Amino acid sequence: MLVSIIEGRVKIYRLMQDGKSVTLFIMRPGDVIGFLPLIDGEPYPVSAEAIEDVNALVITHDQFMDVLNENPQVAIPLLRYLSGYLRTAFDLITRLSSRDAMFRVAAALMGLMEEYRITSNSETMTIQLPVSSKEYASLIGLTPESFSRKITELTDSNIIERVGINKYRIKDIERLSLLSSPRMVI
Q1: How far apart are CA 116 and CA 148, in angstroms?
Q2: Strand, coil or helix: 156
Q3: How far apart are CA 173 and CA 141, in angstroms?
């Protein structure tokens, strides 16, 4: 089945052989889950868990195939979405291949800022991690300790300010943006 999120967030994770869970994505309004089984008929390779109340549209495989047979043009928006998703995966691979923890943290915070700009009309830029800091650190490929150290460095540099548990006010967007740019190594 295909699930299109209208409201709320969903954590996409995979259970490892050792029983630990690894968060892969945090899906938000406008995102689509379940397109792989819809297309290839195989089981969904990950698990999903709502981390907020979720309102979503659900389309079964049979419903999708009926619509697709009646109007093949319906596939074009899905292909566009999938190509955008693939580009996002390429960006994620770039971030995760960087050994620079500050780059990973700054890029992740900039990504959250973009999400908040889309969903908020607020003048101040305050962001909330969608999951615990431990889980978020794992999501961006860091240990919780490394993530915490980089958050502290950003706070000490007056780039961000802690305003609650896993909640930060962005004080210097320009400097955060510079830190989130991949560095060329020569």
Answers
A1: 22
A2: helix
A3: 23
Q: At what angle do helices 101-119 and 75-97 cross, to 10 degrees?
A: 150
Bridge pairing between strands 47-50 and 10-15: antiparallel
pTM for this predicted structure: 0.60
The CATH fold of domain 2-95 = Jelly Rolls (2.60.120)
Strand pairing partners for 47? 13
- CB contact at 8 A, 2 and 58: yes
pLDDT for 27-73, tens place per residue?
A: 889 888 888 887 777 888 888 999 899 999 998 888 988 998 999 99
Q: Where does 99-179 sit in CATH, by number?
A: 1.10.10.10
User: CA-based angle 13:19:14, to the nearest 5?
Assistant: 15
164 φ/ψ angles, rounded to the nearest 5 degrees: 170, -175
Q: Kindly list the domain boundaries of the chain, sorted by start residue.
A: 2-95, 99-179
- Give 123-177 pLDDT, tens digit per residue: 558 999 988 899 899 888 888 999 999 999 999 999 999 999 999 999 998 999 8
